[in-house]
Fold:
Amino acid sequence: MKTIIRCPWCEGFDLYRQYHDTEWGVPLRDSQKLFELLILEGAQAGLSWSTVLKKRESYREAFDGFDPKKIARYGEKKVAELMANPGIVRNRLKVSATIGNAKAYLALEKNGEPFDQFLWSFVQNKPIQNKRRLLSEVPSKSLESDAMSKALLKAGFKFVGSTICYAFMQASGMVNDHLISCHRYSVVKKL
Structure:
């Protein structure tokens, strides 16, 4: 039986491996799905990605499928409902940021800047193909994530520091940070 080599960070439980093998690093071009991923990466701040990954379906349900138009209209009643929901990270700043981020998303779109194009512009609309051999070679941020973070903050987004943006770029396929020994490296490189 052939051994499948994966990036070491995803070993530990099946949901992590499944996420790594099917989603992480695959170029994502859908604006609403990019919005969802950015919100989830922000929710992860100070926590492990596995915590948020386990709660992802609850997040989708609680936040109306991450529809920015619906989220932007949330009021105090909805915030109270979210704060009582054990299926999400119940942090008032993160919940409020999600609502504010939905408003910022809609403002970008209203100004004729589709969210997907705005985000992908930081990598010139083409995934950066890294050739990392060791997990220790993977940085926590980059010049591109610094620029993305600064632009998102200027546009009114919250929980979008450079480290969060870099993790987002890795997850959304803007950066291929699968190790070259990983079975997904060459697959993702071709996408």
The domain at 8-190 is CATH 1.10.340.30 (Endonuclease III; domain 1). The mean pLDDT is 96. The radius of gyration is 17 Å.
